[in-house]
Amino acid sequence: MMDFTDQTVLVTGSSRGIGLAIAKAFDAAGAHVILHARSAIAPEILAEFKQTPQTLQFDIADAEAAEATIKALYKQADFPGIDVLINNAGITKDQLAMAMTPADFAQVINVNLNGTFNVTQPIFKKMIRQRHGAIVNMSSVIGLMGNMGQTNYAASKAGIIGFTKSLAKEGARRGIRVNAIAPGMIMSDMTAVLPEETQTEILKNIPLSRFGEASEVAEAALFLAHSSYITGQTLTVDGGLYI
């Protein structure tokens, strides 16, 4: 069991799905968890944690809102600083390239890629001063292999891998490690509604013959946050889909 006692962990997009699973895993490992969402997080979700988490509410695509919220967080009395940042928040807006509007392309880039930068930059500055920290960015196997109907999403997730590698080089001399996770097909609200024949076709391309669980992505996040000699890497959690 990896121990994160007395560490503060911020997980963006953590009101449900993979983000919530990651937040719960850090909570179970003893961390003080800060949840984030665009809207208020339901009390019943907060009740599922061992330690009541702090919550932040802002749109990561809004650079000014992200910076202002994070600055206010650090101004709180006795706030110890963020030890681990998990950039999980993101969206999809799928459409074949020939029918995709410039607005749809820009929105996904703005949330997934620009939003990751918007949250990371003010926290990275603080980590530089405290001379330690771990950042884990959520990419996707789609950013590695591409997928029909997801040119915007693939571009945003490939961009996150490049962002991760560059930031890892900038942070290394100050003890800051930056890595990424590239999940494959993970059980979620979105995959659960896929027609059975579609799920069967997808499973044919996954050597482990099953979809992943959010908890398995959470295990990878804890591993990368804990591993002191790993930086600039992308860990693929996909059952062998991208080999």
TrEMBL record:
Coiled coil: none annotated. Pathway: Lipid metabolism; fatty acid biosynthesis. Its EC number is 1.1.1.100. InterPro entries: 3oxo_ACP_reduc, KR_dom, NAD(P)-bd_dom_sf, Sc_DH/Rdtase_CS, SDR, SDR_fam. The keyword NADP applies. Homotetramer. This is 3-oxoacyl-[acyl-carrier-protein] reductase.
